[in-house]
Amino acid sequence: MSLNPPRINQPTSLSLHDQACAARPGIEAFIRERFRVVHAADIHDFLPTLVSCRNARGELVAAAGFQLAAEASLFLETYLDTPIEHCLADRLTVMPTRDRIVEVGNLATLKPGQVRQLIVTLAAWFDRRQLEWAVLTLTPTLINSFRRLGLELHPLAPARQERLSHGSSRWGHYYDQKPMVVAVSIPVGAACLRCQTVTHPTHATYERPTIAITENAHALPSVR
């Protein structure tokens, strides 16, 4: 018998879902409901690949989405004056290519702490695929979650609602929180999380995460 059984609401399994996946409508419904509860929003804009996180009972407790910049324009590029790779070059004096940039969004959890294990596992997964930059639109609450993990966030631009010109979502008071577009170096962030695992063994394990991604073959974007 384990002396330290997992908390029932903590994530234990994580899966990917593309737009053809039968389970996807349920994941979208979860994200939509969490945005309704937290932001009084009614969203219908979802990134192409969704990630679902379930607890030991099989209950959905967290979800997110991602989009490779090489495959299409990013949702958050709506907030920017230039393509994301040019924005990163201007702000951070780096020269990434679009095939090394991933947008992460649609972050939704039942409880704030549940987003952290999701971040840890996705960081490991992106790092193994040699992606270099994750770009996100974050509210102050989510910014705090990232910073508590020791991740350095690079502000790129404010996310202003008036820049939106597509989609049927109604965003409630989401934009009242003044969300920001930020960038995170995936290799640097991955190294930070590995270091935390060594120095703080009680933290979520990075090298062998307590949750593993179940990869739906149809849900895997190509990373060259």
From TrEMBL:
One Pfam family from the record: T_hemolysin
Top-rank taxon: Bacteria
InterPro entries: Acyl_CoA_acyltransferase (IPR016181), T_hemolysin (IPR022050)
Protein name according to UniProt: Thermostable hemolysin
Organism per entry: Marinobacterium iners DSM 11526
Organism lineage: Bacteria, Pseudomonadati, Pseudomonadota, Gammaproteobacteria, Oceanospirillales
